[in-house]
Amino acid sequence: MFRSKVAPLNIAVAFVGVGLLIFTVQRVGGWPAVVSGITSVGWWFILVVVIAAARMACRAGAWVTCVRDARLRFRDAFWAVLAGDTAGNLTPLGVFASEPTKILMTRMQLSTVTSIASVAIENAFYTASVLAVLLAGTWVFLQRADVPAGLERISELTLAAVVIAAFAGLWVARARPAVLSRLAPLVTKLAGRSEAPADAVKEIEARIYGVLRWPLRRILRVVAWYVLFHSLAVAEVWLVLRLLPGGHTITLVDAFLMESAGRFVTVAFKFVPYRLGIDEMGSGAVSQVLGLGPAAGVTLALVRRLRIIVLNAIGLVRLARVR
């Protein structure tokens, strides 16, 4: 029943995305300009895919650090992250598909409580790192001259949202509200079982708040994984833009701004499968403001989409082997 509802939604979103993509490409000079840019990447595309895979490896490394269970090997975590990313991209469910998939993929190595708690903790660290990137990227972007009023307003709203999220996070860390524990009776009732589900929910909550008592070295190891994760993302953007015609003037600051803008689109439109058309439109608008030309941004988005498709194809193979 659920799948029957999701499939038509995917098709409808895909049609809208294709239309938006065609419209965006036509506005930047048509397909010849975009195809020329993609062709200029050439065999370097393999390195682009490798960098993207390395970024998933960073998330796997952060997850393993959050688990600290010898039964979860790095390679198992990597394949679970890859499969989860595939599920999240192929459906409008986003994280509601990707994170349960990671839990499913590691059910033989980890208990349900450990798996859910560690995934939640890793996502909290990831979210904090994304907020930091958005905050820094938005601030630098606003320093640029000739920012259109529309993009300036979006940037200001992004700054406000990041600040609010940061204060909310600090409040949660200080107050430690027993949100999950209060929902435990409801979980037990829905499960139709004994108190075991409720106890599990309380245990998950305790482990999540237990992060505040982690040794500083362990926290810094997780942070280091995400510093590398975002650094590789900037390196990927820089590489692609440098390979495009006229890309010799691209700086790391340009690449960082393009990546932070792309990260915002990913967060805001995660529910759209592959963000078809949206990535291209957003990337083209930002690259135009930065003086790189809208075609560069659209081409960048398409190249990154192609490497996502390559990795997701591998992820689909891995998902097909799950029993």
Low-confidence stretches: 1-5
- Terminal CA distance reads 21 Å
Structural class: mainly alpha
What is the overall shape? globular
Encode the helix/strand succession as letters: HHHHHHHHHHHHH
Radius of gyration, in Å, reads 21 Å
Count up the helices.
Answer: 13
Q: How much strand content do the residues show? A: under 5%
Provide a descriptive summary of the structure in words.
It is a single chain. This protein has 323 residues and is an all-alpha fold. Helices cover 80% and strands 0% of the residues. The chain has 13 helices and no strands. It has helices spanning 2-27, 31-41, 44-67, 74-90, 95-105, 112-143, 149-175, 179-191, 196-209, 216-243, 252-268, 278-289, 294-320. Helix 3 (44-67) packs across helix 13 (294-320). The protein is globular. 37% of the residues are buried.
Topology:
Elements: H1 2-27, H2 31-41, H3 44-67, H4 74-90, H5 95-105, H6 112-143, H7 149-175, H8 179-191, H9 196-209, H10 216-243, H11 252-268, H12 278-289, H13 294-320
